[in-house]
Design brief:
Blueprint (H helix, E strand, L loop, with lengths): L15 E3 H7 L10 E3 H23 L6 H24 L24 H19 L3 H25 L14 E2 L16 E2 L2 H23 L5 H17 L9 E2 L2 E2 H23 L37 H5 L16
Antiparallel strand pairs: 1-2, 3-4, 5-6
GO molecular function: phosphatidylglycerol-prolipoprotein diacylglyceryl transferase activity
Family: Belongs to the Lgt family.
Protein name: Phosphatidylglycerol--prolipoprotein diacylglyceryl transferase
Length: 339
Amino acid sequence: MFAPLSIPAPSPDWQVFNLGQWLRDIGLGFFPFDLNIHAYAICILLGIVVATALTSARLKRRGADPGVVLDIAIWAVPFGIVGGRIFHVLTHPDDYFYPGADLARTLYIWEGGMAIFGALILGALGAYLGCRQAGLRFWSFADALAPGLLLAQAFGRFGNYFNQELFGLPTDLPWGLEISSTNPAFPIGLAEGTLFHPTFLYEIIWNVAGAALLILIDRRLRVQWGKLIGLYFIWYGIGRSVFETIRIDPSEIFLGVRTNVWAAFAAILVGLVIIIVQTRRHPGIEPSPYLPGRGWSPNVAGVDSGERYSDSDDDGNGAAEDAGTPASKPATSGVGAKA
C-alpha cells in the first residue's frame, strides 16, 4: 500500500485523451476516426503559450512591438523541439537503438523525452534567425524570454508526472511519488508501493521560484544586454545539477557523471561567461531593442513612458554608437510602422 501522504500515481487514462471517441460518445457519429491528445503534449503546448505571452508583455515594456514575439517563435519553437528530441535520444541510446528496435520511435515525442539542453541549443539558433529577420536584438529577446522559459519548463515537468517518468530515488518522505509497479521504468527488485522522489515537482518549484526572482531582479535593476538570460543559465544549471543526481532513469555516463549533470555545469559556465563578457562590452543601457536601422514606433497615445526602458544616450553609455544614430532620433518616422 502507498503511504497516506504520498503523491498519487496518475491514472494511465490521464496520459491520453481520445477526442474522437469523446465526440462520438456525445452523438457526433460523423467523426469517424480516433484523435488522441497526449497530456505530455498539452503540458508542453501550455508552456509555450505562457512563455510567449509573458515574453510579449516584457518586450512591449522594453519598447518593442509585442507581436514580434510570434515572428521569432515560429523559428525558435520548431528548432527547440527538434533539438530537445535529438539530445534526449543521444543521451538515452539504449531506449531507441537495439536489435529489432522501431527507429520511428525516435520521433514519438508524445511518449515523453525532451531534453532541455538540446532545446536550448537549437532553440537559440532558431531565435537568432527569427530576431535577424524581425530586426530585433537577440540579447533583448533573450532577456525578455528568460522568466517565461523557466515557466515553460515548469509546465513541461507536469508532462513527466502524467507519463510517470524521470522520477528519483526511493524515499520514505511524506511527499514521495507513487509509481505503478507495471510501469516499465519501475526499478526491478523493489517492492510494490515503493515511493520515489518527485523530481518533477522539485524542478517545478525551482523553476517557478527562478522565474519570480528573474522578474524581480529585472524590475529593480533593469538587466539588459543578455545578462538576465545569463542569470537564467546559472539558476537553472544549479538546480538541474542537483535534481539530476537523484534521478534513476538510465542515462549516458561520462567520467562517472551523468551527461545531463555535465550539461548543467556547462549551463552555469555559459551564464557566467555571458554576464562577464556582456558587462564589459556594454556598460551602458540598450538604446533600443531593435537593431540599427530597424525599428518600431508605437502609437504614442498607447505608451506609458514610465513602463518603458529609456533609450536616451546618457554620457558614457555608448548608446549612440550601438544604435548607429543619435539616440534622440527615432528609428523610424512613421507611426506604427516596421522598417
